[in-house]
Design brief:
The complex is a heterotrimer, with 1 copy of chain A and 2 copies of chain B. Chain A is mostly helical. The two termini of chain A are about 15 Å apart. Helices cover about 50% and strands about 5% of the residues of chain A. The radius of gyration of chain B is 23 Å and the shape is globular. By secondary structure, chain B is of the alpha+beta class. In chain B, the strands form 2 sheets. A 3-stranded antiparallel β-sheet of chain B has the order 3-5-4. A two-stranded antiparallel sheet of chain B has the order 1-2. Classes of the chains: A mainly alpha, B alpha+beta. The interface between A and C is large, with 68 and 66 residues.
């Protein structure tokens, strides 16, 4: 069974994961990573821009889920090898984060109800009556230029953009499946490439993200080998001649 | 609860939050009643507040109706507002002053647009304190009054000129982050 | 004039001009009366306003006393002042507000870590609404700005102090929910 999700109703990767694992009888093995990812990309594209931090948070999560999923699909092991141990630690960390996040989500809904219960009380915000103004101390006495600048920055920064209903809009320029096929064809031809080269024709940021996820898919199915000499260095992508049968 | 008409309660609440006198006509529209009925109710409220010896009275001033404090409370009020604690600008006033300082010359309309709410009340306070002043007229069709900060403002802030105000560039981190992202991920990548 | 004590009138007048909740202690100093006498008078005033069905009520919030409009006038007020005043917060903003409320003083980074996404935009919204404010700097290397909730937050929540917030322990998912999450994440050993 695969599970379809509408990502635009989630506040981020943790919120999504919380939703997925809180379902009865649903676990990581049932989640189609590529569907979730496609949905995520569609939602991001519709919002017009990719929030890089959210995108990278999502990528980390997707990678962790892939790992957990592979663990889940393995025949049960009796011995604890170090890799498995690391993975289990990773799972515990993720579980801890989920519990903390779930707690704050409940707290948020409590705050929301308190705020609306109290929303009918309006206080006065009018300035001091003019006849009392002379009695008030000098208002600029404690004000520094830095405080003024901070207030200006706050006032002049546009507020949080309103949430857009995206249910009816844009399709992604390229889906994850299409990107996987496209990169497969290209790598079969070129044998060896780099992530940068593979992205050189990308017309939008969203395609770069899709390409990265596609590479991870190919890596997972052992169709490619990845190498990176140093953090932020070039990622080389090599096609495996003897790719195992697609599972 | 008494059998006091609900309209008196609602009138009192509306006048309580208003930051300037409210014309009878506006109240008539709000409550969907003829103006003369509103006037009757307002006189009723005015008498009631006076008769009961309340700390809040209703005044009919130029331009409409406004709630004010009872005159014999003045000595306490003066002591109260004279406290150090009150020697600072309200959040709204600070924000308005900041906008005037960094965006001058600026009109009321522009300030309201930036803040998302009318700022006439706070602007009046800043004018009466002499930190903001009229500096000209918009040459455009409306000829809106334009405001700027005064010499007194510079003196109080310990500045020689407006150019000494701290730059906003470092304080708006989001804009910078966006720019960095743009330049880092140029077209074609 | 009735025989209503003059102190009730003066208290009402002072609370009318105050722009934030006034602590009992401040009123005791102002009126040169012991705090418990002030509290009695304030409770008297509170009951009186409620009993007479006035448009204004007295609330004990954010460590002090504050006059506010009675909630049943809210529909008129909203039409009168426009919607912006108490606009609803988004889910993201509420989550961020909850983290700030329970984890204060807290940095942007710590908030992002708990939510799993950057919360800069919503944090700015909360700052401009005045419910969150900067409360200091992290003494560590980055000197990150630390945020906390404001007095206005307590007032909007109808709380006298932060200690009245429900305990975080009571808001945690129950054992069954945690077990379900755990099994959802993968097999145990």
């Amino acid at each position: 069974m695969t599970y379809a999700v509408k990502l635009d109703v989630f506040e981020g990767p943790l919120d999504l994961l919380l939703h997925l694992v809180s379902k009865e009888r649903l676990n990581v093995a049932d989640i189609s990573i590529s569907e979730v990812t496609d949905e995520y990309l569609r939602a991001s594209a519709a919002m017009g821009e990719v929030d890089l931090e959210t995108a990278s948070g999502f990528l980390v999560l997707a990678a962790t889920l892939l790992e957990l999923k592979s663990l889940k699909l393995l025949p049960s092991r009796t011995t604890v090898d170090p890799e498995l141990k690391l993975l289990l630690e990773e799972r515990d960390r993720l579980l801890h984060r989920l519990v903390v996040y779930a707690t704050f989500k409940t707290a948020a809904s409590r705050l929301g109800s308190s705020l609306s219960e109290n929303s009918g009380f309006h206080s006065r915000s009018a300035e001091l009556p003019e006849e009392l103004a002379p009695a008030a101390p000098d208002v600029l006495r404690n004000l520094t230029p830095e405080q003024l600048a901070r207030a200006a920055a706050r006032a002049l920064t546009p507020p949080e953009p309103p949430k857009v209903d995206i249910s009816h809009v844009t399709r992604v320029t390229v889906s994850l499946d299409e990107m996987v096929q496209r990169l497969k064809a290209r790598l079969e031809r070129e044998q060896l490439s780099s992530f940068r080269q593979l992205c050189s024709t990308a017309r939008a940021r969203i395609e770069v993200v899709t390409a990265l996820l596609a590479i991870l898919e190919l890596f997972k199915s052992q169709s490619v080998e990845l190498e990176q000499d140093q953090p932020f260095g070039e990622i080389s992508v090599a096609w495996r001649q003897t790719a195992p049968e697609a599972s | 609860m008494t059998d006091r008409p609900a309209i008196l309660r609602h009138l009192e609440a509306v006048l309580f939050v208003a930051d300037e006198p409210v014309p009878t006509a506006d109240l008539a529209v709000l409550f969907e009643l003829p103006a003369h009925r509103i006037t009757e109710h307002l006189h009723g409220l005015q008498e009631e507040l006076a008769r009961e010896g309340r700390g809040i009275v209703l005044r009919n001033v130029a331009g409409g109706w406004r709630l004010a404090t009872s005159p014999d409370s003045a000595p306490y009020l003066e002591r109260f507002v004279g406290e150090q604690r009150h020697g600072r600008l309200s959040q709204a006033a600070l924000e308005t002053l900041a906008i005037v300082a960094y965006r001058q010359p600026v009109s009321r309309g522009q300030i309201a647009e930036i803040r998302g709410v009318s700022s006439d009340g706070v602007l009046r306070t800043l004018l009466s304190r002499g930190v903001v002043e009229e500096v000209g007229r918009d040459p455009g069709p409306g000829q809106a009054i334009l405001y700027g900060t005064s010499q007194l403002f510079l003196e109080r802030m310990g500045l020689d000129s407006l150019s000494e105000l701290p730059s906003l560039a470092d304080l708006m981190p989001d804009t910078r982050a966006v720019e960095r992202m743009e330049s880092g991920l140029g077209p074609g990548l």
